[in-house]
Amino acid sequence: MKASIIGVTGYAGIELFRLLNNHSEIESVDLYSRSHQGELLRDIYPQFSDNRYILKKYKIDDIVDSDIVFTALPHGISQDIVIELFKKGLMVIDLSGDFRYKNPMIYEEWYDIKHRYPEYLIKAVYGLADINKKEIKGAKLIANPGCYPTASLLGIWPAFAEGIIKKQGIIIDAKSGISGAGSGVKKITQFTEIDENISAYAIGTHRHTSEIENALNNFSTNSSNIQVLFTPHLIPVKRGIMTTIYANLEKDINKDSLIKIYKNYYSEKGFIQLVKKAETKYVVPSNNCHISLEIDERLGRLVIISVIDNLIKGAAGQAVQNMNIALGFSEKTGLEAAGIFP
After folding, report:
1. Is the confidence at residue 222, as pLDDT, over 70?
2. Which one from 72, 82, 95, 147 is the annotated catalytic residue?
């Protein structure tokens, strides 16, 4: 099959190319860039030494023969291109936040951008691959989730779905490697700012708060305006996300029973493993999610640790997993690699 990537030179885009370039079902990958048109990929990322890969200017006529198109563009910019491709009948997986919400008002409130195609939001499938697999099969427009929501939702979902925790008062403390801030030059990504430092940001206002809440409300059979307190932090590592989730228990349960429930939920999800101690070093750079569970009996709270690689499971790897599901490939195709520690 033939794939195309629009926006290949960002961190998620180049990881996507790396994965597709070694995917047994993908014969060729065309690369498109807004800022590096006409350049060789190897001149930007020398690890790809093949001189066949020239970054092209995006034109719809050049892409119509693709079997699948990945758009790895900033939110707001992605909207027009995704709809143009979708109207041409192409299968699109969008890595921006532009199609993750059914309700355009939520998107506009949190992203401060007018959604120009609200009528198409209902056509998009939220690509949380390990939970929404049934909807993803055969989908033509897939909204790839954000990295923080992926780690958070995979960690909390079994306890939430089984009514083990109260649906209000959920706290998510999240820490991400600096690559989560993207490849653009920002003050917070400068070495002198990030080295030997941990900083919280966008407290109470981070747009991934709304994505987590929206997914929980949509996936819940009896949603009740679920709200979470989400606080992200930048830490001085290149990649990896750890979310520590605190939730009040709705019912008495012991740790062994809780682990059994989680294993039952994820028994056929080959990318999710229950471990004694979830640490980012064991999932980078894989498509795996490691989850560990603890119960604070004194306070009646569940503590969930969920870790992923923000660029793989939180972006490019999940996009490939969504492609595999949608097109009927084996779900692990091209994603079999384990973490590389030490």
Report:
1. no
2. 147
